[in-house]
Structure formats: C-alpha cells, structure tokens
Design a protein that fits this description.
Elements lengths: L1 H18 L10 H10 L27 H16 L10 H17 L12 H11 L19 H17 L4 H16 L6 E3 L2 E3 L1 H9 L6 E5 L8 E3 L13 E3 L2 H13 L4 E5 L4 H6 L2 E2 L13 H9 L7 E11 L2 E7 L13 E5 H7 E7 L6 H4 L6
Parallel strand pairs: 3-5, 7-10
Antiparallel strand pairs: 1-2, 3-11, 4-5, 6-8, 6-11, 8-9, 9-10
C-alpha cells in the first residue's frame, strides 16, 4: 500500500507540473519587471543623447537633505550662463544657513507651529537671495574630509535644540535664533560679510546685484492640481512649503506638461519638485518611468495625478534640475541633474532620465523663466481678478 501510495503521489505531481509549467519558473523581481518595461519603449542610453541647456557639472549632496539648494543653485547657474553672465559656482550652503535662521524665527513666532526641517522648495533659495544675497561656493562651502558633504551631526544638534525648546515651552525668538546660529556656525562656518571675487570686494547682496544679476521677477512656478481653480495662483500644499508660498500658477495637466516640454526644448532649464519614491528610480538609479503594469500611459490623467497625491502615493520628496529634452521613437524623455546619492551609483555622475509618463504623474511643480513659457501670458490672472 505504501508503495502504491507513493507512486500515485509522484504521478499526480508530474501531472500538475505538466499542466502548470509556470510553477517551474521563478517569480520575477521588481527590478526585472522594470527592466522589461524599459526595454519595451525607446529610451536614451547616455547624456550624449541630449543637447542640454548650459549647465555646470552636477554636485553630489552627500549626507544632506538639501537637494532643494543643490538643484535651485544649479538652476541659477544655468540662468546666468543662458543670459551670458560669467559662469560662477554658487554656494549651496549659504541658503541652508540663512534658511535655518528664518525657520528658527518663524518657529518662535508661531510657538512651535511652523515646520523646522532640512527640506525646502526652490522658493527657499529665492527667498534667501532676496533677503540675504548670494555667495560663490569658493568662499563658503566647505565639504567634509574626502570631499563630500555630511550634515548628520548638524541635524542631530538642531533637533536637540528644538526639542529642548519645546519641552521648556519658552519661545523667545532672540534666544532661539542665537542658539540655532551657534550650531550653524559650528557646522557650516560663519558666512563672510565681505569677500573677494575676481579681484573685487563684495558683500553677499552686492555680489547678487552685480555678478549674479538675474531678472528675479521674471520667473514662474507652475503646478497642476484640482485643489484650486485653474489659471490662478495657489499654495503648493506640501510640508516643505513651510512659508505657505502662494505664488504657484495652477494650470491643467496638459498645459503643465506642454509648458515644461516647450521650455526645455527651447533651451531653457527648470528646477523641478517631484516624488522620487517610485521603484524605477531606486531600482535603476537612472531612469524614472511608470511601467504599464502599474498605470498605462494613456490612463495618466488629471484625476489619476490627483488621486495619487491625495492618497499619499505621490509626495514632496526631492528637487532636481531639468536641463534637456529629446524624443526617442515617439517617446518623450527629459534629462536632469540629480544631486541625490541614487543618481551617483555605478559611476553615474548625477544624470537622470525622466519619461513623459513620470513627469505627468510625479512632478508636483517646476520653476522656469517666463520667456520659456510664452503661453503663460494667457493663463495669468488679470489684474483685479
């Protein structure tokens, strides 16, 4: 009986396997699925596949959470080059220093109600430029030993300071600002009040006015969400918009995408706020795409974009600098400079390729010179409206 039972079981197993060959195949990993999805569509293979806007080489942000400063200063550098200014590497740490000072003030004024964290948007750099000026990287940025940036201890010390203040419940603005300033000076250094650049002496404000010399009122920030009426200015409601800036022009998704595409095709660049939590970003380190097994490109609509933002699948995580566009066999791709560590793996030097589907679904907002988006004149709210 035992022998007959064993023969029966063996025959049954062979029969099942004969009719279910898929059981023999190992399950595909997410990386394999994404690679298959990428190979199904024409795509770039190197930066040489693009003719990018003028830009300085990408910088690695190291162990910091200040991508917003790296991307936006990169954008300003490109704007200087586009407008035939002297190309200058701008300080990424000066906006961090000044930004934290303003966050400390706002935190005290709101008795702990404002956000105090490393994150920010492109508005953070523009606000610092307006209030404090700018510095060249050569006179302020000081990488850690080995050439990278490491702000791990800075964040720990700032967090300890804020927690102590919360526990004490004493929101004295002057005292908190002084404590935060002391920590910043220890880790970042004290910004110079005057400095030499190309044989001339400047202050941060005179350097901004005489060397950077950008048309600050000619820049637009665009977004696309149904939470506000289209063709009006609105607040981008994300945690990093800690100042609750309401100067984001809200337009429908087709107009939003065409504006970014048209500007970059015309030789402009754009600073971009996006979600980088999709598997394609982490898995490939170079390609941002939405595979069909997640959401087919034809189904990426305003409603789909809205739903993923509202349910938290799309979040405000990262800022990059888009500098190029090209079409490959009918597929739109964008080239970006990315300071985050993922884009520096395997010898990559901070270059990132974004497919049109990813741009439509996962880019929350972008900053661009208004000349790159001439159609925006028709969208801008009329005076008095």
């Amino acid at each position: 009986m035992m022998q007959l039972g064993s023969l029966f079981i063996q025959s049954f197993v062979l029969l099942v396997l004969a009719f279910c060959p898929i059981a023999l195949a190992p399950a595909q990993t997410m990386q394999e699925k994404l690679h298959e999805a990428l190979e199904k569509i024409p795509h770039p293979t190197s930066v040489a596949d693009f003719q990018p806007a003028p830009a300085l080489p990408c910088r690695n942000q190291g162990k910091t959470f200040v991508c917003w400063s790296f991307a936006t200063t990169s954008f300003l550098e490109s704007e200087m080059m586009r407008l035939k200014r002297e190309p200058v590497r701008l300080s990424v740490m000066y906006p961090v220093y000044c930004g934290y000072m303003e966050k400390a003030r706002r935190l005290a004024q709101t008795h702990g109600g404002s956000r105090f964290a490393a994150g920010d948007l492109f508005t953070g750099v523009f606000d610092v430029c307006r209030e404090y000026g700018a510095l060249p990287a050569s006179v302020y940025d000081r990488p850690a030993a080995g050439g990278g940036f490491d702000q791990t201890q800075l964040y720990a010390d700032l967090e300890r300071c804020i927690q102590e203040t919360r526990l004490q419940g004493k929101w004295d603005e002057a005292r908190l600002v002084a404590r935060v300033k002391k920590i910043l000076k220890r880790h970042l250094g004290e910004p110079p009040k005057t400095f030499s650049h190309n044989g001339r002496t400047y202050t941060p404000k005179s350097f901004l006015a005489e060397v950077v010399r950008l048309p600050w009122t000619d820049y637009l920030m665009l977004t696309s969400f149904e939470s506000a009426p289209f063709n009006t200015f609105t607040e981008l409601k994300v945690p990093d918009n800690w100042r609750h800036n309401t100067n984001f022009l809200n337009v429908p998704l087709p107009a939003f995408y065409d504006a970014l595409k048209g500007a970059v095709r015309a030789g402009f660049s754009a600073a971009v706020d996006l979600d980088n939590t999709e598997p394609s970003y982490e898995s490939t380190g170079r390609y941002c795409l939405i595979p069909d097994f997640d959401l087919p490109a034809a189904q990426i609509t305003q409603a789909a974009r809205e739903l993923r933002f509202l349910d938290g699948a799309t979040s405000d995580d990262h800022v990059i600098h888009v500098i190029g566009f090209n079409n490959f066999g009918g597929e739109d791709w964008f080239l970006a400079k990315d300071s985050w560590k993922v884009a520096w793996r395997d010898g990559n030097q901070g270059s990132l390729f974004l497919h049109s589907a990813y741009v439509k679904l996962k880019i929350l907002a972008f900053l661009v010179h208004r000349d790159g988006v001439p159609q925006a004149d028709a969208w801008l709210p009329r005076r008095g409206s």
